[in-house]
Design a protein that fits this description.
The structure is a single chain. The protein has three domains: 14-60, no CATH class; 92-251, no CATH class; 276-407, no CATH class. It is built from 22 helices and five strands. The strands form two sheets. The protein has a three-stranded mixed beta sheet with strand order 1-3-2, covered by helices on one side. With 452 residues, the chain is mostly helical. Keywords: Membrane, Transmembrane, Transmembrane helix. It holds the Pfam family DUF247.
Length: 452
């Protein structure tokens, strides 16, 4: 019986057994329909014992859809609510890493190149294939548990797959954008612990000195698609991560320690803020912020500063897969979910994207305004979000508080219509002329009656 099969009970005999079977949910438990008049002695005990054994085995499995905090699973499928937003960001386009997409037609051409990369890796590191294979075989059990789905592969096939899949990462074949995108897809990962074991175990010291740590090697690879200063990349050298997507995800985390608002704080929020088009008439200004982290957003003195982001195929892949990773893990930080929710509030339509582009906050390379608006809208609607628990809760609160203030309301009122502005100017002009006339009259009176 497979891990996902329903519990099967064979030969529930006798009237009493038939009554018990009626309480079992139809479709989960199958019966043979055989009802002998006299059940064999001991058959009931055998059935109960067999059922208990099978149920115990099922209870030991971690529920697939709700990974616990202590679950060993780190590599998941894209959650159903997120799936389909951009299919190109979900499945590998060129190279399959791990078991989920092994054998797909679009990755077969690269599969033929993997032995070549392994040969080059062995030659460069002067490693023995037997030693390398034994290292990978020693990690087979822990590697299997990293996948949230059962990997139906023979032991030798699984070890061979792991052995061949690490080499495109170490050897860095001719880098093309599609390959870099494949390396940050949630369903296309192998455990980082295995990469680190091989890197530390077989890469000679002189090569390590030239390339740096494994994390630096990977970050240099991603730097071709998401460039950052080398000094910043070196600060990620000791990051603890679960796979390459997790490494890149953690490199985007906000700088400094972030504490969300306490749930007990009194704050009546609509879980949202107005869009860019709605915020501008309230006197809010937008400014691009070149921060170390994509998520370092601030709001001070009516100026909303947002780090610039290039919405291209690579960044779209990162956003979708980072949000998916957060949705699969319980009791972990959800920085990217919070960021996407914040941008989802700001961007409702292509006009909002156009405005953010004019401020230098969003840059487009391969997509138009409509695509970006759809991306944030679809992602934002697909995720669960609590404004009080997010790391941007203070920015949400301050923006909402200012937008509801009398000052912002007055600015919206007088900026919504040219007649309102003209009326306000006319009232000011009348007041100014009245004051001037009164001042001239008083001054004239004092000049004509000096003794008074």
């Amino acid at each position: 019986m497979s891990d996902l099969a329903a519990i099967e009970i064979v030969e529930l005999n006798g009237a009493a057994a038939e009554s018990d079977a009626g309480m079992i949910v139809k479709g989960r438990f199958e019966t043979t329909g055989i009802q002998p008049s006299a059940p064999p002695v001991g058959s009931r005990n055998d059935t109960v014992t067999r059922c208990l054994d099978q149920v115990h085995r099922l209870l030991k499995e971690t529920p697939r859809g709700f990974p616990a905090e202590t679950s060993p699973h780190t590599i998941f499928r894209i959650p159903p609510p997120v799936r389909g937003i951009d299919p190109k960001a979900e499945e590998p386009e060129i190279v399959s890493i791990g078991p989920y997409h092994r054998g797909r037609p679009q990755v077969l051409a690269f599969e033929e190149l993997k032995p070549l990369f392994l040969t080059r890796f062995l030659r460069r590191t002067r490693s023995d294939l037997g030693v390398l294979t034994r290292l990978v075989a020693g990690e087979e059990s822990s590697a299997r548990t990293c996948y949230s789905e059962h990997v139906d592969m023979m032991s030798a096939d699984f070890v061979q797959m792991m052995l061949l899949d690490v080499d495109p990462i170490f050897e860095r074949p001719q880098i093309i954008p599609a390959l870099m995108r494949d390396l940050v897809k949630l369903e296309n990962q192998i455990p980082y612990s295995l990469l680190r074991l091989l890197f530390n175990g077989v890469v000679p010291p002189n090569l390590k000195a030239a390339t740096g740590s494994l994390a630096i090697l990977a970050m240099k690879l991603f730097d071709l698609a998401y460039p950052r200063p080398m000094a910043l990349l070196k600060s990620y050298e000791d990051l603890e991560c679960e796979h390459l997507l997790d490494l890149f995800y953690k490199s985007l985390s906000p700088t400094g320690r972030i504490h969300p608002n306490s749930r007990r704080e009194s704050w009546s929020s609509a879980q949202s803020i107005p869009s860019v088009t709605e915020l501008r008439p309230s006197g809010i200004k937008f400014k691009s912020n070149k921060a170390d982290s994509l998520l370092d957003i601030s709001f001070r003195r009516r100026v909303l500063q947002i780090p610039n982001i290039a919405i291209n195929d690579f960044m779209t892949t990162v956003l979708i897969n980072s949000v998916s990773l957060e949705q699969c893990r319980e009791n972990r930080s959800r920085y990217m979910t919070d960021y996407v929710s914040f941008m989802h509030c700001l961007v409702n339509q292509p006009k909002d994207v156009s405005l953010l582009r004019s401020y230098g906050i969003i840059a487009l390379f391969s997509h138009d305004n409509q695509y970006v608006a759809d991306l944030f809208n679809k992602l934002g609607k697909s995720i669960s979000f609590n404004v009080r628990d997010c790391f941007l809760s203070r920015q949400f609160k301050e923006l909402e508080s200012y937008y509801c203030s009398q000052r912002a309301n007055a600015m919206r009122t007088y900026s919504s219509s040219p007649w309102s502005s003209l009326s306000a100017f006319s009232a000011f002009l009348v007041l100014f002329l009245t004051f001037t006339q009164t001042f001239i009259a008083l001054n004239s009176f004092q000049c004509n009656h000096p003794h008074h």
